[in-house]
Amino acid sequence: VVMGRAFVYVVLGGGVAAGYAALEFVKRGVSSGELCIISDEPFAPYERPALSKGYLLPEAPARLPSFHTCVGAHEERLTPKWYKEHGIELVLGTRVKSADVRRKTLLTATGETISYKFLIIATGARALKLEEFGVNGSDAENVCYLRDLADANRIVDVIHSSTGGNAVIIGGGYIGMECAASLVISKINVTMVFPEAHCMPRLFTPKIAAYYEEYYMAKGVTFIKGTVLSSFDIDFNGKVTAVNLRDGARLPADMVIVGIGIRPNTSLFEGQLTLEKGGIKVNGRMQTSNNSVYAVGDVAAFPVKLFGETRRLEHVDSARKSARHAVSAIMEPEKTGEFDYLPFFYSRVFALSWQFYGDNAGEAVHFGDFSGSKFGAFWVSKGHLVGSFLEGGTKEEYEAIAKATRLKPAIEDAAELERLGVDFALSV
Ligand code: FDA
Ligand code: NAD
Q1: Which of 8, 105, 281, 399 suits a disulfide with 34, CB 3.0-4.6 Å?
Q2: 328 and 381 Cβ atoms separated by less than 8 Å
Q3: pLDDT digit string (tens) for 48-64?
Q4: Separation CA 375–CA 153 (nearest Å)
Q5: Three-class SS state of 28
Q6: Residues 6+ apart with CB under 8 A from 248
Q7: Span 101-129, pLDDT tens digits
Q8: Would you say 152 and 55 are in contact if contact means Cβ atoms under 8 Å apart?
């Protein structure tokens, strides 16, 4: 017997984008029984950013249900009960193993066929493994990655058995920096190893990176830059005891966290939909090369109007807003225009907090007090302000840099911009 169910709307993936899509569907009057969300995680959608921050803290850690979507945008908190009350079918702990966009069906690992009229792909991304860089040992019990709640639970367990010991963090990006802070707070000695000359190389300038590195060093973190690991020493219990680096150094380790980037989960649709920049290509309505299929969040490569270019972003604000836009385009097509998105990234570690808007292209103009707690940078490209970074700002200041960046004002005098700093944004 072939089992099957049919829905008007199906969201494939149950992460951040799925949660915000559900909220938007309900706001636009979806009827009971029309919407289904399928996720291989056994939890209703939650705010993934909590996992590297509050979730890992030793005191009063964040736990579900407190961070289900959509608390991150000060919207209603969507608990499993909420989905039930709105007649939304949550199919959890269920992996979709194939998709047929011509037939408009998905096949789950449990053998069920789920058909749709409209599909929203929200499969997110997976963490890159060390094996993909030629190093073995990812399956050791104290080597951790961080993408989902199961990973975070594992890290919590490993932290508990490593108190007072040594952690080696591989990668100087978001995961590396945020986990390092959480481990320091849990009284673990942290060494960070990455190949670049400074942390957060995709976004930070050397000057911005130096500020954060010095702050971390004052908290006891050691940085080993310009090299990568070559192998692990593994004991007879299958636990890593040391990390060997390509430059010959050997770092004793009670635990390892790896954060070396992600790959979007596109494989179900390769050969069926057009791909670009490693993601699923969509238009300004988040619609893929197949009319009935939309893609949102980390997996979508969409036109960023402001830059006149297709980008794939890996940040929560983009997941939230692209999901809502797709639902709007599906349910009210005549009233929905092109997605006009201002990229927004942020992070919070220790007592620090920064926000970034726009594009880090062109020349960086730094401003503010780099020996204090409020500073930033503007990026100027082809005579216009295109990007803004601010550490330690107020709500008004963050709003001002966002607004200024969206307006792309002409910049004639970089020295004046440097002198004015945030005041420039407040005056735009
Ligand atoms: P997301 O990964 O959230 O969800 C995808 C879902 O699809 C998952 O539940 C997955 O299991 C499921 N899935 C995939 N394939 C499937 C299949 N075949 N069948 C069934 N289900 C399937 N950003 C930011 O701006 N600020 C921040 O502070 C942070 N912090 C942060 C911390 C950590 C630890 C991570 C991992 C990430 C962040 N991010 C972030 C990034 C942000 O969380 C990310 O951009 C969004 O979660 C993307 O949302 P999506 O819904 O696209 O994917
Ligand atoms: P990332 O792209 O931010 O950083 C990857 C880092 O890996 C690089 O900076 C580099 O230092 C390092 N690296 C690359 N190859 C390496 C190698 N062979 N050996 C050692 N190091 C190597 O990715 P991530 O930190 O893994 O984060 C994963 C995802 O989670 C990203 O999409 C990120 O946007 C998201 N995230 C975002 C936030 C935030 O926005 N605040 C927080 C956490 C996670």
Answers
A1: 8
A2: no
A3: 999 999 999 999 999 99
A4: 35
A5: coil
A6: none
A7: 999 999 999 999 999 999 999 999 999 99
A8: yes
Closest alpha carbon to 22 in 150, 124, 110, 122:
122
69 close to ligand 1 (CB < 6 Angstrom): no
Peptide bond connecting 65 to the previous residue in cis, omega within 30 degrees of 0:
yes
Query: Looking at residue 231, what is its pLDDT?
Result: 97
342-398 pLDDT per residue, tens? 999 999 999 999 999 999 999 999 999 999 999 999 999 999 999 999 999 999 999
CB 271 within 8 A of CB 157: no
CA-closest residue to ligand 1 atom 38: 49
User: 39: closest CA among 88, 101, 104, 100?
Assistant: 88
**CB neighbours of residue 257 within 10 Å:** 28
Q: What is the DSSP letter of 128?
A: P
Mean pLDDT along residues 146-156: 98
Ligand 1 mean position, distance from CA 67 (Å): 14
What six digits make up the tokens of 217? 């060093």
Task: Report residues whose beta carbon is within 6 angstroms of any ligand 2 atom.
Answer: 52, 133, 170-176, 178, 194-196, 201-202, 228, 259-262, 314-315, 345, 347
Determine the distance from the C-alpha atom of residue 352 to the mean position of all C-alpha atoms in its chain, rounded to a whole number: 19
The Cα-based distances of 295 to 14, 218, 330 in angstroms read 13, 43, 12
pLDDT on residue 3: 75
